[in-house]
Amino acid sequence: MNFNVAVIPGDGIGPEIVSEAKKVLDKVGSKFGHEFTYKEVLMGGVSIDAHGVPLTDEALETARKSDAVLLGAVGGRVGVDSWYKLPPNLRPEAGLLAIRKGLGLFANLRPAYLYDELKSACPLKESIADAGFDMVVVRELTGGLYFGERKTEEVNGVMTAVDTLTYNEEEIRRIAVKGFEIAMKRGKKVTSVDKANVLDSSRLWQKVVAEVAKDYPEVTLENMLVDNCAMQLVKDPAQFDVILTENMFGDILSDEASMITGSIGMLPSASLAAGKFGLYEPSHGAAPDIAGKNIANPLATILSAAMMLRYSFDLDKEADAVEEAVRQVLKDGIRTVDIMSEGMQQVTCQGMGDAICERI
Ligand code: IPM
Ligand code: MG
After folding, report:
1. What residue's CA is closest to ligand 1, atom 12?
2. Mind listing the domains of the chain with CATH numbers?
């Protein structure tokens, strides 16, 4: 089959890691008889440099017309790159928010998995790391504080800023359905995270999630307050399967979940719209300090491409092959510098892409 992929290399290490992911997709294509056609799209700082805005309407349109989007990373260094002298709505990260909203990418899946081979990188106590963990944060991505009304104004002579946290029951229901569907394919447990002891939006969240849960009798539902969840993630991460939560809580908790794997360069993510369309990107950022050095870890982007094969193209066998190649590379002791340890073989970004292709 032929698939059209919009590719957004972005800033920093984005171009290097995306080109390894394309290399891997092409290897999958030749092995399994598919063709991937790529259209490059500018977003983030590179788009600001070229067009003065982080995402043009044309770029959004190209992404919309594709079958799926593969993204590297956007952003630079605050205080160093001139992009950050622009108003907030014109900075690189605004491109990310615009593409999420513009393409209706309401479901953000961020798996956090502790690889056996990388257990020593886990910053938690050995007794906790030994138990391992395998969870996915399902984060609502187009609502809540990120997209509510905001303003800064003087009220009675005092500067006052307002950000609005809004959710309606439809927005909650569709993300809850995704969370439960994903749980059905995994450990059949959903931990719905909220702040229902304070927030109205959380109380509505709990009510709607409980309604959705009735359609999934096999799935165990647990409600957890977000502050408790932050503690449980470092105390007993093995208890989690699917963490279902709103936009802001999901932003924070998914960083915490990725940190305890000790290897953020390994973590993919998917942002899904209704239907099969999705945008796939590594969970890490643009890492401008190591850009252009051919030392970045491309595995998170390669694993994001695997998620694209699985969720947008229904190519499960092909996705398995990529994920298996990643496990094999780790078993074979091949490492980029960020996950390097004694006795292992250190490779470049390109070297890692090649090592994966050899194992597909
Ligand atoms: C993320 C990032 C973004 C977010 C920023 C860059 C706007 O932190 O994807 O988690 O907060 O969603
Ligand atoms: Mg974040």
Report:
1. 251
2. 1-115+265-360 (3.40.718.10), 123-260 (3.40.718.10)
